[in-house]
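Have a think about this chain, tokens included, and walk me through the fold.
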Amino acid sequence: MDFFSKLGKKASKTYQVTKEKAANLSEELKLRGKINDLKDKVEEIYNDIGKIVYNEIKDGKEVSKEEVSVRCEQISKFKDEIEKIQTDILALKKVRKCSNCGEELALEDSFCCKCGTKQPEIEKVEVKENISTEMKDAEIVEVTNVNPDKVSNENAEVENVSDNENVEIENSSNENCEDNNDKENNNEENNDEENNDEENNN
């Protein structure tokens, strides 16, 4: 049983790892597809700029800086998007690039395996502290949102109920005492009558 249990756990773990790798690979392919689309757009804008410059020079005119500037801004925007997606891919693969040559390195590598450049240390962010702080804030909000008038009214109602219950208990105990006294008096009277009857008979 232990053998099959260990085998099942190992197979389940292997399946989870394979599933995660397949999902990461699929996501990486999607991101690389977006990068290719953006690069194609950048190339189209380059071609537009070249055509504008060529036509202006061909006609003996000055190159329009406005048209070229607008297209240059578009190129800068697309390149920023490409850089962001490349950063997302590195995070997905759990690697980073060398600060000098751009070689892909493991996150824990201190030096580049290609050029030998020392890599900057990665700052670790503790997420648990932020979560606990948010939970504390939520607890404080819950406490401060309590209506003190409502709480005092509820406490007063509870005290009234307890007082009424105590009065009822005292009344019932008094009634029981009175019943017992009546029974004792009746028993004494009956005994006296029986004694008198016996004396008369004698």
Remarks:
- Residues 127-131, 138-148 have pLDDT under 50 and may be disordered.
- The radius of gyration is 45 Å.
- Residues 2-93 form one domain.
